[in-house]
Each structure stands twice: as structure tokens, then as C-alpha cells.
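Justification of resources, computational component.

The compute hours requested in this renewal are based largely on the per-chain cost of generating structure records like the one below. Each record pairs the submitted sequence with a full C-alpha cell output. That output is archived, and it is also reused by downstream analysis tasks.
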Amino acid sequence: MKIDTGKWSEAELDRLLRESSLLSGAGMKIDFLSQQFLGVPYSGATLGGGVNTPEELRINLAGVDCFTFPDYVEAMRLSASFGEFVEKLRLVRYRSGSVSFVDRNHFFTDWAIFNAARVEDATEEIGQGSTTTVNKTLNLKGDGTSYLAGIPTFERTLRYIPAEAIGESCADRLRTGDYAGIYSDLPGLDVSHAGIVIRSADSITFRHASSSAKSGRVVDEDFKKYIAGKPGLIILRPREPDPTGGR
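The structure output for this chain reads:
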């Protein structure tokens, strides 16, 4: 295991997670926890790995990308201590908690299948009749090669809300804490980017790890402006934890 806690000490993370655990509802927890990451630098490929490399659980809070950012936040919202966070991250990031490159959730929509106890696909609920359904072979590029060497290609049915269909009524059904994936129209990909929806009384914010030269860190941007011109959205919604401790 490799751990870099970034700007926090483990004791400080313990305190933040205890504080978060007292908040009511997944949305409030995700808002609070994701806010702590604002300003954290963008850093890609921090998980490393490959089919020929022994996989290890890596925690790098000093730099995140658009997938590891929600990865950490989701594991944190299920935790009340740093030790619990490490264990929840293993379960969120890997199928059945099996730490291997093959079992890592490489695609955004993997969460809806392999983390179904923790998140659900809310795209159709939010789109309400305006969603588009497509069948894709994920991990297969247009030229016949793979995005991820050694990971089998596989068929998946995706539903997304076209950007032009995201009007006021659709946006009003978004909730704080929703995980928003920007649908990709490229072969072999489900989304091209991901972030977190944050609602206030008069606005909707897209909180994400931006790789742009201008930002290069975790930032808040106006949601409607950000999605303008994008192909569409896939929304995964956090489920409330089972009070009996089942998840």
C-alpha cells in the first residue's frame, strides 16, 4: 500500500471524517468532503498499475484526477475514520474489494454495476423521457485497439441525457452529491470526464478536478456553462448507507 495524505495528516483526516459522519444525508457529506479538496492539484495516472504489474492500493490525496477525486470522496462519505476510509476505498475502487488491475473499476459506469449497493444510475429518473440509449463496446477504440491493455472489451448499454435536453426541469431534478459523468461519443468510452453536482438556492455547481492549463486543480464551475456544448450526461446517485451496517 502506498499512502500520500497530501496537505492533511492522518489525524486531521480522522477529524474530518468524524465530522462528516455526523452530517445528515449523503449529499451533505459529499458537499462537505469534496469542498476540502478545492485547490488540490490535478495529477493524472496516480494509480499506476497494469496487467503485468502487481497491483497495490494507492492513496494519493496530494494530486487527483477526475476519477480519483470522486473515488476518494465516495469512500470518505462512507467512513468515520481514516482506517475505515482505507477499507472503504478498497471496496469502492475494486470489484468485491479484490485489489487487482483487472478488478479495478476503470469506467465510470462500472460503479452502477459493481458498487450498486452504494450508488445507482439516476440518469433516466432525471432525464424523464429525454434520455438516449446506446450500446457500446467499452475499451475498444475505433481503430480496433484497446484503451487499457490486458482488460477485455465488453458490451454495455448506456443511457445519457443529451446536453440540449438538459433544461430547467431536468436540472431541477439534480441533487447535491450526484456524480456527473460527461458522456463520450467516442467508441469504447462511457464518459470523458466526471465530477460532482453541488446545488445552492440559486445555482448549480460542477465540482471537479480540472486538467486545463488555466485551472489544473479541483475547482467549482457553473454547471450549466460547463455542460454547454458537451454530448450529454450520465448521473450516478449515492445511496444512503444501510443503518444495519450492510454497506
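DSSP finds eight helices and ten strands in the chain. Residues 10-21 form the longest helix (12 residues).
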